[in-house]
Amino acid sequence: MPRRTPRNALDRLRTPRGLHGFLKTASVCALVAGLLSPLSPAMAAGTGSAEATAAEATAAEATAQAAPNDHCGGQCSDILPPGQNGNATLAQILLNQAFGTQPAHAEDQLGPYANLATGYSGLTNDKINTFFNDASFGVPEGQAASTVRPAGRDDVTIVRDKKTGVPHITGTTRYGTEFGAGYAAAQDRLWLMDLFRHVGRGQLTPFAGGAPANQGLEQQFWRSAPYTEADLEAQIESAAAKAGERGELALADVDAYVAGVNAYIDASDKGRYFPGEYVLTGHKNAITNAGTIEHFKRSDLIALASVIGSLFGAGGGGEVNNALSLLAAQEKYGVAEGTEVWESFRQRNDPEAVLTQQDGSFPYLPTPDDPQGRALPDAGSVEPEPLVYDRTGSAGAASATGASAKSADAAVSSARRGMSNALVVSGEHTASGHPVAVFGPQTGYFAPQLLMLQEIQGPGISARGASFAGLSMYVELGRGQDYAWSATTSGQDIIDTYAVELCQDDYHYLYRGTCTPMEKVERHNAWKPTVADSTAAGSYTMRVWRTKYGPVESRATVGGKKVAYTTLRSSYLHEADSIIGFQMLNDPDYLNSPERFKGAVQHINYTFNWFYADSEHTAYYNSGDNPVRAGGVDAEFPVWARSAYEWQDWDPADNTARYTGASAHPQSVDQDYYISWNNKQARDYPAASWGNGSVHRGNLLDDRVKKLVADGGVTRTALVKAMAEAALADLRAEDVVPDLLKVVESAPVTDPAAKEAVAGLKAWLSAGGLRTETSAGSKKYAHADAIRTLDAWWPLLVKAEFEPGLGADLYTAFTRNLPVDESPSAAHGPTGAHAGSAFQYGWWSYVDKDVRSVLGEPVKGPLARPYCGDGDLAACRDSLVSTLKEAAGRTAAQVYPGDDSCSAGDQWCADSVIHRTLGGIKHGGISWQNRPTYQQVVEFTSHR
């Protein structure tokens, strides 16, 4: 059966197939379970019976202390599937593989999360915590499952609740608090943390195995952040040095956190309850306990941060692809008209785009009238820079070289992986008079999850929420005593491409007039088969050439001169700088107002939209170090690496520059409502990714929240319902298909197949255009035929509508800038199959604007020329009817061809959300929802 290739970087990281078929018999499982479990985790951690007996008293005490500082009044909730526990012993892994049994708290949040898809319509305020966790501070009396004083310390306690196993960390000293945070993180995510410190260093294959997916993953991330060990170590010290007392505190917090992680490594090694993946990958011996789990150090956290920042917090890039599509447009239409056509598809500042900040203008990167310093490549001259050399063994297999090609393509794609959404309504429009928020990050679905829940209470820290595993010295998204905050990826452009002119040979370049050698940075990786990964032995060397202007991405000629194209992002060499902002968000003594909130997130150099709610106010701020470009530079395209075109005040020694001031970032306080689903932030503030036009998935939220606000009396229930319905909506069906059907029905539809398809689509639209089950657990869609028809029709109609007018070359070039489709089952889309997130990247705005133009309807910011039927309504209709008939005739097996998880023709399964295994524990698929992975529902009732 055909296999689909996911394009999200993390989707490539899978537990190799060999593990899932390993040791299936009960007798072997029982034997290994006996060998591996001489001590319980609590006993080995130094928590004796007396301490365990005192757990409930300790929890009650913690609750009593926390309650006066909890201003949510029981109206804060959260959820993070599949479950809190992301560590499993070898015995637990084998039992899961053989019988599907789950370790405690490994998936107890998956069911409530999944059930919202069919349960939201009957939601009431008292039922919210049927689908979410109570996110109040502390542990209710009698609900403490365990109490641990890590490493026997008397200044910190970790209490885990019975319902979800979330750690509630309470410290009496700052050091003890952070030590406990590190210990709790390792309890829940040690294997994942270890995995990602190796991904960030480009050393995944020696650690986890040489599967082609692992090869592709380490190549993609190391290509964009090829740090040496010295680079990693310097970044945390540099970030701390710039921040004064807060910097010194952050450094101490990191050291305490790392010490806590290492204390758990030692305890789990001694007690032999460390994650079983260490045995399966050959790092530990199940019988003798020989082998080592390496201690963590400061630099590991920077390696982790580089992966997370690259995935979710770095907007921009793709300038070479932009140049190629511009040149194709100019080749097709001539320079003037070709440029106009390109700009109309780029939609830098589309007047019909849905906005997060509704008022004001925030100019950033305006299109220059007379662009300066452009360095567009000569036709046919662009060649990607090789990364992998000296392949041996399995590294030379076709599957391995194919993975390398995909990683290279993903690394330079201009379609960023921005995700997450937010719905925030001011108290002026709510039933209670207090703001209501439903928000969270959409970080994909993995087992164990990239994020983890925790509550931290200690000197200068008071918060509960989610943090990325290995970076959880602070809560990164969550709630404080009387406020909550969250983020979505914003993706404004902080990455530029420079054309460095070569001199002497291919590895020297002109830097400010001097011929300068490039710096060669290498990783030599070798692997051998393990139980977890049977990939044959192999090796290769990854080699990156670094310049003052960043790593070399590709080579070309410009006006006949040989150049290397490099990429430079403002957060390069600054992966640790955001730590200060997160520290401030957790500090109750600092954060007491919307203004202080904005002050905190201004210290976060990654590109995010930040949202805030307390009992009286809401706020929004767009973060990121936005470099100020030289006058006349168009950041959409490569520019010459010359002083005149560098970022203003740029210092290559530590990659710093002048950045736009805080007032230039989109922001406000107490707007009527905010929505964000990675859409355009504000007027005159262009997003780096393509596709911010008249139809965006942000419209699915904006239309619903706007109506709620107009009606007034918004409640938590109403806002959750709006989010949940948008999470099931097919954007194409809701916002584009009605106009397509206007064209189709502009004349009588007489063909029986087309007529039946039109009737089916109209019935589905009348029912709301949702991709939802007939009933809970049916695994069958209502209006399944209409959904199948649209899934088949969309790529056919887009190609038929645009390729004849654009020509094959330009059409293909534009599809490299922006994929045509991203339906839930579109494995070819940027997020891959089974990823949940859908409808962010696609040609919906192009189709919408073009079809409305053909219909004679007003269009603001139209495409430069009509395409459907060359602007003729009858010809456009003929094209749409023809492709609709073809789509309707395609079988379910053709539309949903099947993959490793689904049989051909299984529509529900093709859409389903599947937690991709990053370890040994598997989970079943759930019905599709397009919503945050971690999500909060908050309404504070009082303020300090």
Can you lay out the helices and strands and say which pair or pack?
Elements: H1 17-20, H2 26-36, H3 41-44, H4 49-53, H5 55-66, E1 76-79, H6 90-99, H7 110-119, H8 128-131, E2 133-134, E3 144-148, E4 156-161, E5 167-171, H9 174-200, H10 204-208, H11 212-224, H12 229-241, H13 244-271, H14 277-280, H15 298-312, H16 319-333, H17 335-346, E6 383-384, E7 388-393, H18 398-412, E8 421-425, E9 436-440, E10 446-447, E11 451-458, E12 461-468, E13 477-479, E14 483-489, E15 495-503, E16 505-511, E17 514-517, E18 519-527, E19 538-547, E20 550-558, E21 561-569, H19 579-585, H20 594-601, E22 608-614, E23 618-623, E24 639-640, E25 667-669, E26 673-676, H21 698-711, H22 716-726, H23 731-735, H24 737-744, H25 752-766, H26 784-806, H27 808-817, H28 844-854, H29 873-888, H30 892-895, H31 907-911, E27 916-917, E28 935-938
Parallel strand pairs: 5-11, 10-27, 15-24
Antiparallel strand pairs: 1-2, 1-28, 3-4, 4-5, 6-20, 7-19, 8-9, 8-26, 9-28, 11-12, 12-13, 13-14, 14-22, 15-16, 15-21, 16-17, 18-19, 19-20, 20-21, 22-23, 23-25
